[in-house]
Amino acid sequence: MNAPESGGKVKTEFTVLGTTPMRQDGMEKVTGAARFGDDIHLPGMLHGKLLRSPHAHARIKSIDTRKAAAMKGVRAVITGADMPTLNAGIIAAGEGGEVNMQDIADNCMARDRVFYDGHVLAAVAADNPHIAEAACGLIEVEYELLEPVLNVHDAIKAGAPVLHEEYTPGAFLFPTQKALPNAGRLFLEHGDVDGALAACDFVVEREFSTKAVHQGYIEPHVTTAEWTSEETLTIHTSTQGAFAIRDFLASFMNMPLSKIKVIPMEIGGGFGGKDVVYIDSVAAVLARKSGRPVKIFMSRSEVLRGTGPSPETFIRVKMGCNKAGQLQAADIYLLYEAGAYPGGPIAPGTLCSLTRYNVPNVRLDGYDVFLNKPKMKPYRAPGATQSNFAAESTLADLAEKAGIDPIEMRLINALKPGDMMPMGFPCPPLGSIEMLNAIKTHPHYTAPLEGENRGRGIAYGFWFGAGLASSAEIRANSDGTVNLTTGSADLSGTRNTLGMQAAEQLGIDPALITTNVGDTDSVGYTFQSVGSRTTFATGIAVISACKKLIGEMARRAAMVWEVDAAEVVYAEGMFRLKGDADKRMTFGELCAKADHTGGPLLADASEFPEGVGFQIAANIVDVEVDPETGKVDILRFTALQDVGKAVHPDYVEGQMQGGSVQGIGWALNEEYVFDDQGRLSNPTLLDYRMPTALDVPNIDCTILETPNPGHPFGVRGVGEVPIVPPPAAIRDAIKNAVGIHLCELPMKPAVVLKAIRDQQGNS
Amino acid sequence: MSKVHVTTTVNGEEKEFLAEPRQSLLEVLRDELHLTGTKEGCNDGNCGACSVVFDGTLVCACCVLGVEANGKRVETVEGMATREGLHPLQQAFLEETGMQCGICTPGFLMASNELLKSNPNPSEQEIRFWLANNLCRCTGYDKIVKSVQKAAAVMGGA
Amino acid sequence: MHSFEFSTPTSVSEAVAMLAEQGANARILAGGTDLLIGMRAGRLQPGLVVDAKGIPELLEYQLGSDGLRLGAAVTCRTLYDDPGVVEGYPALIEAVSIIGGIPTQGRATVGGNLCNAAPSGDTIPALIALGAVATLIGPDGPRQLPVEAICLAPGRTALAANELLLSIHIPAPVANSGACYQRFIPRNEMDIAVASVGSSVVLSADGGTFESARIALGSVGPTPIFAQAAGALLAGQPVSDASLQQAADAAEAAATPINDMRGTIEQRKQLINVLTRRTLREAVSRAQA
Q1: Cα–Cα dist A454/A389, whole Å
Q2: Is the confidence at residue A95, as pLDDT, over 70?
Q3: What is the pTM of this model?
C-alpha cells in the first residue's frame, strides 16, 4: 500500500454537494420498470440449472449425464470437462501478489474434486427451469468421499487432509506467504512485543470466535449469456463490476477482452459478493453448446451454499497498557477461513485490527486457512469487522481493568493525523479525535439509561477503502443537457453522487445531467464498485472529464468570439471574455453552438487515484437483555462517521444505517451453521436470520466531515466502515447490562443465556 | 402434465395465460405476463420481494400457484401509479430515499400500501411489525419506515 | 418443482372422493405456505394437489355461544381481522399473528398448520391449551379427535390418507378463564419457535385459586406436547409464584427437546420453564380481568 497522495487544493464551498436531489433511477425503481438481471428475456432463451455437490469433500469418480441429456426439453448438459482449459493460470495481483485464475474457474465448475457442499459440478440448459432442475436430478455422479476439513484449528494441524498439493498464496489486497499445507500467512512485527507485555501494568488476553456470515443481498445471482457470433459473447448480468466479469470470462474462455461485451443490469445489492464470476462462464458454455441464449438464476439456497460468505474466524488478542492507559504492546493471532481456495480477507482483517490506535510494539500473525467451505468473499470492509470485534473488545476490557473511561482510553491511544502508521507512512487528515470527542458530548451518550438489564456500549472502527481505475465520459448536448457515462455499477444511488460532482464542477443544475452505467463496449475500464471507491475514485474521473469538457468549451467560446482560448474564463455556468463584460455565454448557449465550432462536445478521462481517505466510524448503542432467555434487544443506536464530504447526505446516512444494521445482524443472529459433514444446515432466509424491520430501531446518524486531501472535493469512501464497530459496541452494551464478557459472534440468545447462567453459577 | 388455461384480472385488466400447475404466481407474473416488477428473492415466503395483493389480501406470490389466480384479482407494483402520477407511497419512497438498490422496493410498496389501507395512521412499531416479512439489506429500514410515515401523512392519515 | 395435477373440488364429498381414489398421492392445498415450500424443496411430491379453497364449508367460521368453529381453510388473517375472535380467543390470536409475516398470514390456515404437524406449529399448543377438537371426514363420514391426538410425528398426523380435516372447534371460554400463547424466537418476527407454550386456566370466582389448567408445549419434542400433568397439578392450588413455578418445572420435565441449529436442549428446557411461567401469569391476569 502506498501513502495516500495529496492532490491539489480541496474545495470547501459547494453549491451542489450537500444537497439531496431525487435519484434519477428512482422512478423506474418505484414503478417496477427498472430492469434487474432477471428481468431480461431474450428470444429463444433457455434456462440453466446447476448440479451442486452434496458432499463437502469428494473426488468425482465419474459423471454420467446421458439420462439428463435424453430428457425432453433439455438442450445442453455440461460438466467440468466441457470448460475450457485456461491458457494463463497465474496472474499478477497488486502489491507483488499473485492470483491463480484456475482456482476461480474451478470454483465455478469443479473438475475432478469438489471442495465444499454446494460446489458446482455439472449444469443443464433446458426449455424452462423446472425441466433443467429435474434433469440435474438425473445426472449420476459417483463420488469417492474424502475427509472434510471443517474448521480452522483442524485445518492447520499436522496430518490434516491437504486441500491443494500446490497452491498460490492468497493476495486479497495484500499478499500472504506460503506457510502451512492448508494456510498462507501474513506476519508483521515491530518492537519487542513480549518484553513490552511483560512490563505492562495491565494486560488482558482473550480468545474470540466468530461465525461465517453472508452478504445477504436480496437479489440472487443471475446472468444471461448469448453468443452474438461464433466469437463474440454478450453477457447481461447484475454485477458490481462489468469489466471484472469481462476480464474473468476472457481468462476462463481464452478470449480477447474486446470480444466480450458485459451489459450491467440494475443490481439488487452486492456488498462485496457480486464482483466475481460464479455462473457467467457456465452460462456461456451452455449457450455455446446449445446454440441458444442461456439464463442462470440462482435459488436462495444456492446463493447461501455457493456464494459469499465472509469467513468464520478465531482470533487471540493479548494487549497491555501502562497505568496511564497508554497501549504498550499487542500480540494478535488470527485464523481466518479462506474457504476452498486461497484468498480470503485475512490481510485487511489483520491490518485493520489495530490501525486506529498507536501501539509501539505489535505482533500480527494472520493465517488464510483453506478448508471445505465455500470460497470466502469480501463483505463490506472485508475482514475488518471480525478483527475489530476482537481487538476493540479486548481494549474495552483492558480499560475496565485499568479503571480508565472507555472513551478516554481510546482518545489516549487514537491514531491522529501525522502519526506513523504500520504501513510505514504518516496518517493523513482524519477526524479521529473529533469523532471520539463527539461521542462524549452526543445527546445519546449523555442521556440517562434507566431500567434493569439495560446497558450502553461504544466502539470505534477503521477501514482503508480503495482507489483503483475508473473512467468517465461526458457529453454536452445541443440543448444544454449532459450525458455522463461511467463504468461503475450503481448499488445505492452513485449515479446521483457522480452526476452531482459533475454538476458541481460544471457549475450547472444537477437536473441537467443524466448519468448512466456504461457497458464494457461503451466506456473505459473501471474497477468494480467495491472498497467504497465509486463516489471517491470514479468521482475523480468524472471531475477530470468535466475539466476537459470545460477546456474544450472554452476553446469553442474563443472561436465564437475570435479570441485566444486563454482569454476565456468559466465560472458558475458562464463563459466570459476577460475584460469584456458584454462577452458572455451560458453553458447551454455554448452547447447550442457546438456544430458551428467543430462538432459535438464530449470529453473523457480515466484516473487511478492514490489519495484514498481512510474511513472511521463509531457507535453508541443501548441494549436490554432478557436474563431469562438471553435475548438482546437494541433500544437505541447511533452511528458516527467521518465521511470527508457528504456528497448526498441522505445517501451517506443510508450507508451508515444499512451498514449498522448488517453489523447488528452479524452481532446478534446471523451465522452459517454446518453439520458434522460440512453441509450447510440453514440455507434459507428463515434460518439465516438477517434483521427484519422489527429487530432494529431507527439508526441516528452523526456525520463528521474532515476533508480528504486526495479528492478535489474532500470526499472519502463511505460505504464500508459502518459495518465494522457494531458487534463490538453491542458486546460492550451487553457487558454493561448484565456483566458478561462475551467472546463470540453471534451473541445469540443461547450464547447470552449460557454466559449469564455460567456467571450465576460462579457467583 | 398439460397446461391449464387461466383467466384472471391483473391491475384491473383481464389476462389469460396457460400455466403448468407447478408454476407459482410469481413465475406466471414474470415469465408469462412479463410483469417483472415483482421480484424473486427467496422463493419461500421469507423475503417479501414478491409481495402482491391476491384477491384483496397481501401475499407472497411465490407461495401461491399461478393456477389459483383463475377468476381472481391480482395487483402488482405496476398497477400502483396511475395516469395522474405516482402513488403517494412511491413519491414518499423517492423523497425520503426509502431505497438503495431497489430490488426490495416493489415488495415494500405493495406491503406498505396494504398497511395504510387497513391502518391509515400506523405507529412506527406497527409499520415495523407489518413490514417484518419484507427484508431489505441496504437501508437498515430507517428511511423505509420514514417513507411510509410520510406517505401516511400525505394521504391524510396523520 | 416436480410436475403434478391440480384439482379444485367444490364440495367436501368431491374432495373426499378424490382422496379416496388417490390416497397418499394427493395433498390438500389450503394456504400452501408449507405445501409449496415442501414441494419446491423436493420433500413432498404429490401427484395431485387438491385445492381446498373452492369448498365453501372449509372457508367458513362461526363464532357462537358454544365457541369458535373454524373451517379448515380459514386463514390466520381472517381470524385477527375479526374483532369478536380477537376479543374471545386472545391465545389463538397470539398464535395466528406470528405465523410468518403478514403476507404468510393472509394465506396460511389454522387447519394447514395443524395438518403440517410440525413440532413448532404455532397454533397447535394454543389449540391444545384451549381444548380444541378437530373434525375429520372420510368415506365413512366424520369423526372427532382432540387436537392433541392429531400430530403423531414430524409431518405425520392421525388423518388417514383418505381423510380430510373439516373443521376445528374451540369451546367458548368459561367464566374466570384465560389463556395465552407465547413462543421464543431469536428475532422479533419471521422465525420458527425455539420453544413455545400455550396455557389456559380456569380460576375460582374470586380469582385466587386454580380450578383447572391446560399447558401445551411446542418445539420440544417430535410433536407438540400436551403437558397434562403440569396443568393438572395446578388444580386446587392458590394462584402464587410458587404454584406457577411448580407448573413451570413440571412443564420443563415434560419437554423432550433435541439439539439442533435452532436451539440447544439446555436452552429449550429453560425457555419452557420461563414461557410456562409467563403464559400462566398472563392467562391468570386475563382470567381475573
Answers
A1: 21
A2: no
A3: 0.97
Among candidate residues A740, A745, A703, A696, the one with its CA nearest the CA of residue A721: A703
Q: Which chains neighbour C (Cβ–Cβ under 8 Å, 3 or more pairs)?
A: A, B
Confidence band of A4 (pLDDT split at 50, 70, 90): low
Cell of A353: 485490527
Strand bridging mode A568-571 / A574-577: antiparallel
Q: Which residue of C has its CA nearest to B53?
A: C103
Q: What is the CATH number of domain C177-288?
A: 3.30.390.50
Partner-chain residue, chosen from A38, A130, A696, that has the shortest CB–CB distance to B40 = A38
Residues C217, C269 contacting (CB under 8 angstroms): no
Which chains neighbour B (Cβ–Cβ under 8 Å, 3 or more pairs)? Answer: A, C
pLDDT band at A10 (very low <50, low <70, confident <90, very high): confident
The matching CATH number, chosen from 3.30.43.10, 3.30.70.600, 3.40.50.300, 3.30.360.10, for C5-54 is: 3.30.43.10
Beta carbons within 8 Å of A568's beta carbon, 6+ residues apart: A554, A555, A557, A558, A561, A575, A576, A577, A578
- Give tens-digit pLDDT for A679-713: 999 999 999 999 999 999 999 999 999 999 999 99
Inform me whether the C-beta atom of residue C51 falls under 8 Å from chain A C-beta atoms.
Answer: no
Minimum CA–CA partner of A269 in chain B = B101
Mean pLDDT in residue range C230-255: 98
> What is the CATH topology of the domain spanning A26-34+467-607?
Aldehyde Oxidoreductase; domain 4 (3.30.365)
Report the pLDDT value the prediction gives residue B68, as an integer from 0 to 100.
97
**Which sign does the torsion angle of CA A613, A396, A445, A666 carry?**
positive
**At residue A94, does pLDDT exceed 70?**
no
Q: How far is B71 from chain A (nearest CA, A)?
A: 24
Report how many helices (DSSP H) and strands (DSSP E) chain B contains, helices first.
5, 5
**The C-alpha cell of B3 is what?**
397446461
| CA–CA distances in Å: residue A252 to residues A248, A255, A289 | 6, 8, 16
Please provide the average confidence, as pLDDT, over all residues in chain A: 96
The full set of domains in chain B, from first to last, is 4-76 (3.10.20.30), 88-154 (1.10.150.120)
Query: Quick one: cell of A300?
Result: 436462495
β C26-29/C48-51 pair status? parallel
For chain C, the domains span 5-54, 56-171, 177-288
Pick B139's closest partner by Cβ from A29, A271, A658. A658
Chain A residues whose CB is inside 8 A of the C274 CB are: 628-629
Q: Which residues of B touch C37 (CB under 8 A)?
A: 44-45, 63
Domain boundaries, given as residue ranges, for chain A: 26-34+467-607
CATH code 3.60.15.10 for C56-171? no
CB-based contact, A511 to chain B, within 8 Å: no
Residue A14 has pLDDT above 70, yes or no: yes
The ipTM estimated for the assembled molecules is: 0.98
